[in-house]
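User: Need the bound-state model for magnesium ion:
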Amino acid sequence: MSFRKKVDKKLRQKEKKYETKQLMKEKRSDEYKVLEEVFDRSTLMTVYEFLNKGTIDEISGVVKAGKEGRIYWGRDSDGGELAIKIYLTVSAEFKKGMLPYIEGDQRFVHVRRDTRSLVYAWAQKEFKNLKRAHQVGIRVPRPIDVKKNVLIMEFIGENGVSAPVLKEASLQSPDKVYQQLLACIKKLYQKAELVHADLSEYNTMIWDGELVLFDISQAVPLEHPMASKFLRRDLENLHRYFKKLNVDVLPIEETYRSVTRGKR
Ligand SMILES: Nc1ncnc2c1ncn2[C@@H]1O[C@H](COP(=O)(O)OP(=O)(O)O)[C@@H](O)[C@H]1O
Ligand SMILES: [Mg+2]
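Assistant: Bound-state model below.
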């Protein structure tokens, strides 16, 4: 590299650092204070990198704060709404809960077992699962980017208000929704080769009259040793929920055979 090029490169790096600092100052608002209180330096840097790259133009408003992480609402540079999911890197409980879904998933055999590495893997897992589902045409939040414990996806809802989850939605035709959700499970199994593993009326949204599956970090590939157990549990949840709504649900074994046909 010529001397001139080296100098240019150094200058660019300096500029970039300066820009990040400026951005941090300019964009400092209540939300940033919240970010700073809850998350460690590394997480803040990851968020700032996304701001710097332009993936996120604006971050504001906590959509939901849970034990394991938080969902923020934001916008990209075209004004499109984003859901920014940030996992906490400190929860020991979370680690215990995650392990069965990571162990046995061939995509993550080489991940270290300390909490931070597992949480990073968890975010990657959600991103990869969303991608796999999205690619085969299952309605999920479109995955945009992921780094460390920060995942960016399409916002399902409008003006920072999330679409209602199935539990909150008033269904005109529960029968149809039951059929749609069953078809979703089947497509996820047959085409994306994944089992959701946490399917419930809380992890499904209804938006524009369409079902949207989300929160799929725990979803496992069909080769996972617990895949069939998880699928049965998903189908039981579906069965239980729609039975309460007086839907004429199919026997679980029948739905199990239909979902897995040709794959087992
Ligand atoms: N892509 C999204 N668009 C809009 N709202 C979302 C999105 N993802 C999550 N949410 C909202 O945040 C809540 C929690 O998200 P979820 O992914 O289920 O996190 P957790 O792992 O804490 O359960 C959801 O119930 C929903 O209201
Ligand atoms: Mg959830």
